[in-house]
Amino acid sequence: MFSCYDAFVSLFLYRYLRLVVNLYAFCRLRPIPIPENPRLTSRDVTVVIPSIEGAGGELWDTIRSILATEPYEIILVTVEAHEPRAKLMVKNMGTSKVRVCCVAHPNKRRQMVRAIPEVKTDITIFADDDVTWPPKLLPWMLAPLEDERFGGVGTNQRLRRAEAPGFRQRIWGYLGALYLERRNFDCAACMYMDGGLPCLSGRTVAYRTKILRDDAFIYGFTHEEWLGRYQLNADDDNFITRWLVSHEKAIWYQYHKEAEVQTTLEDNPKFLKQCLRWSRSNWRSNITSMFCEGHIWRSQPWSTYAVHLTTLSHWALFGDCLLLFLFFKSTGAWDEDAQTLGFILLMSWIFMTKFIKLLGHYIRYPVDFLLLPISILFGYLHGLIKVYAMLSLNVTAWGSRDGADDDDAYRMIRVTQKQHEAADHHFIQNLCTQ
């Protein structure tokens, strides 16, 4: 008979085996070094920047930091309404390496697809319009792509901290920094274990251009479905990551200081809306990966357990309470001193797990350790965010960026059977005429 003690041990091992193994794996991962005589150089790279605004100080700084790495070209893709100011900004920059393209509606997938035919190099890098690149990023990103097995390379990411933030701004910034730190940890650990990771983040990611130009990829990218009823035009980086896995293209996460991209997150209550959007994206993509496509069970078994399954099973408050309940139920026959000692040890372990994989952040910013209770409370709150996200998976709104939701209805479109048949017929015709 399955006792409370058996349940306690099973839950404990299920929750914490991944942490212990991931701590070991995180410490073991090493970046792929730059070869002495690289075949690929910065001249083999085109950087595509999808942007809604198409101009502004933050985008200006992003482009400047990218230009410093000397890529072959930068293609800035904005919307038609903002094309004039995008071209004016590029003109004022005084460079011939930046080209402006546009689409009718602000949708990242369509903006990316608009740029792909314009790329003239073997490597395409997609970058967000709010990132800062280190000067030596490209050689480190290109190093894994010297091996033809690799189809995509992701980057390490850190939050660009605000200067002289107010108290509330500092709290939100702290939570955002931990989000990226946690993601870096999970990506590095899973990469070491089985070559998997949660997602090649679109903040800055490199792909072989020939993969992106494949007709089957373009069709899948622009006709992804959700629940068989909706055309999904959000979650672009999740789709490409799954595409690489399903087509047996290796991916790599280049965890190195010189491959560390700085980015911004909301440092106000809008951060909660970002978390909600990310959570919805995780639900949709992880469900698709595990139960619709299924490739990761075979190719990335550890990542499936350590990352993808946590979408379904990792609920911090419920898990902690259940673990404590099972502990007391299974130790009822212990004497009071032994049970008290066991409780103290268990609580100490649970507390340690709340920050151990975030030590890198606390080493860099020791004063932030004073904010640890806020991080723990937010971890419990995030369970509620996950529940709400699960109940609203047909919502794709950003809610955190001006202009981002002007055409939100375009991100998830209900598709009829006739539209399915017409799209398939059009795709087959295109293949036959090539």
Number of helices: 18
Order of helices and strands: HEHEHEHEHEHEHHEEHEEHHHHHHHHEH
Helix residue percentage:
40-55%
Overall geometry: globular
Characterize the main sheet.
8 strands, mixed
**What is the radius of gyration?**
23 Å
**Low-confidence segments, ≥5 residues, pLDDT <50?**
423-434
Strand content: 5-15%
Strands, total number: 11
In round numbers, the mean pLDDT is: 92
Query: Structural class, from secondary structure content?
Result: alpha/beta
Task: Write a concise keyword list for the protein shown above.
18 helices; eight-stranded mixed beta sheet; 53% helix; 434 residues; 11 strands; disordered C terminus; alpha/beta
Description:
With 434 residues, the protein is an alpha/beta fold. It contains 18 helices and 11 strands. It has helices spanning 4-28, 57-67, 83-93, 108-115, 137-145, 167-194, 209-212, 215-222, 236-246, 270-293, 296-299, 301-308, 310-313, 316-330, 336-353, 359-364, 372-390, 417-432; strands at 45-50, 73-79, 98-103, 123-127, 150-159, 204-208, 225-226, 230-232, 250-254, 260-263, 412-414. The strands form 2 sheets. Strands 1, 2, 3, 4, 5, 6, 9 and 10 form an 8-stranded mixed β-sheet that branches. The protein is globular, with a radius of gyration of 23 Å. The protein starts with a helix and ends with a helix. Mean pLDDT is 92; it is low at 423-434.
